Write the structure tokens for this entry.
Amino acid sequence: MGGATAALDYDAELMVRVKEGDGASFALLLNKHRAAVVHFLYRMVHSQGVAEELAQEVFLRVYRSRGAYEPTAKFTTWLFRIATHLALNWLRDGKNERGQQSLDQRDCGMPAHEAADGRPSVEQRMVRESRFEEVRHAVAALPANQRAAVLMHKYEEMEYSQIAKVLHCTESAVKSLLFRAYETLRARLAHMA
Amino acid sequence: MSHNGCRGRTELLLEYAAGGLDAAGREAVERHIGECGPCRDLVADQRGVWAALDGWEAPPVSVDFDRRLYARIAREESWWDRILRLFSPVLMRRGLPVAAAAGLALVAILVMSHPAPVPPAPLAKVQQAEPLRPDQVETALQDMEMLREFNGLVRPDPADSKM
């Protein structure tokens, strides 16, 4: 691969090593991107259990496809393309209906436990839960592709060009998605500043 | 930036609100929003959105995530490798219609489901060869097609090399 490989990101180099049979490199990739993928999926589907199941499928597909991998682009573009594909399919298939009904506190994004010496008051906790709910519902109300674009832009700090590659569309289409999404979110969340 | 020209400046304002501009860009936007109320309001509102999203924490990943993943890999690797061995040379050839690949897979499933009369294989080999399920083949084809499409569509660009 020569020069092409030299210009690649470190993740792509690791993936090339995985292709060559290096399981340790897969473990490194998993360790590096596990949280980002799960968190992205969680914010897409709003259920931690579903997010982890989908994330398992993402990494499983990466591992399965190692033999055919070609380092032509950033590894994370491919990774999030798989994740987005799975999330959009899951949402499209309506599998979220049951999940939405069974949201528990963990699924709503609340930390599973509070530190014993930093426990917030009941009032602080209620305010924070209310804010979480408001944000969650505002994001959930976005069309799925707008939601994916916002999450990649905000939390993964992806540039428009990379989001475009993930969503398989043009940069101008990504800008349009983001502008409309942020316009909607400003109408619903601006007061939370 | 006069107010009449602000419509096309939204991208710049959003980047400013996200803290993504360099010093010169920030200075230009600050000069503008010092004079333009609607743009000032947009920036303030967008910062509100940003702050709200910042506060949306995701739960930690389960501690047994990796263990479950590796168990799935071990469980599924055997049938996946069998599919790859069967179809990889055909599937990876650029330009081959996916339908043709799917057809081959279907034929393979049919053959495996209704094998032609053949001399009995040694018992050990028969026990190893569990029939592939149609959904396994379908998943394999989807994965191969997504990767093939991705490899074909995405070309290295200067932005990629920065990361």
About this structure: The two ends of chain A are 49 Å apart (CA to CA).
